[in-house]
């Protein structure tokens, strides 16, 4: 087993750090939260909270990476591997800068740019015959059918709103006709030796301000054979056209028996939390896709996942002061005691392991309510006015 250090940068680095540690690496993490789990999992952590709202700045990120390398005793000439998670969808130039300094185990800047640019992606889907909702750059004319307004390069669902022609048009957005159905994602490992798939189902946790906010995810789900074949065909066609590599995800809405592709995420996504195994095989396979020639073969030989679900707990009852509690082992992304969480922001992640995906999801949904009750019933939050905890 290797003890090689590896750099990880993401809005939240805990998920990648956990998988890296399971795979035998020592992760050095730059993220926005530096929560207790990430600190425990990592050889060193640097916190860049401004990236959560403003994106990663090239200079600040470079300084943070060199700081954690210095803390861990990693020399500037060691040329370490670097893995990227969420947070670079709007910052391809930062990816390009990182690739000049580190060994990048991530889709390069041009791939990310093409995958997240609606001017490129949706005409490509049309040319490839891949079903997708009607998408446009200009605001649609008022109509009875609902349209969604999405931020270019957005992730997590909080950037999505129903378009209202009476409101001021926001910059850097595109518009997509709303379709309703089951949210299915295909997590794909793409290597030089082929392409492998696993499927997840997700659900929303809507709030008044963010009706399409991510709620949770369940995997490894079984799909109808015809629907699965259509999803796989779409992904197999699109992967080489975008030059995708490593762990990526393709998000679909299945309407009846027709999957509609709505987004491509050229990076490891939330599914890593529920599809990885005890040996960090998905992380190892992701690295192999960029450093070796047998990523898919490694996956087929070693990957041993169990049905799992994961969900976010949000501060939806008002501003929350994190109490000093004994967290259950199924809670991750634990903030330190005393940290103040603003209303509707994510607090922790809960997970559930079960015999089948449906049971795992049911348990997970119950656990989100249990943890919220514990947090808001603590002494730190009992003295707040009723309107602060509604």
Amount of helix: 25-40%
**Low-confidence region ranges:** 385-390
Task: Describe the main β-sheet briefly.
Answer: 8 strands, antiparallel
Q: In percent, how much strand structure appears in the residues?
A: 25-35%
> What is the terminal-to-terminal distance?
49 Å
Outline type: globular
Query: Helical region count?
Result: 13
Biggest sheet strand line-up? 14-13-10-11-12-15-19-17
Q: Kindly report the average pLDDT value.
A: 93
Q: By helix and strand content, what is the structural category?
A: alpha+beta
- Calculate Rg over CA atoms: 21 Å
Number of strands: 19
Describe this structure in words.
Keywords: ATP-binding, Nucleotide-binding. Mean pLDDT is 93; it is low at 385-390. This protein is 32% helix and 26% strand. It is an alpha+beta fold and 390 residues long. The radius of gyration is 21 Å and the shape is globular. Helix 2 (36-41) links the parallel strand 2 (26-31) and strand 3. The strands form four sheets. The protein has an eight-stranded antiparallel β-sheet.
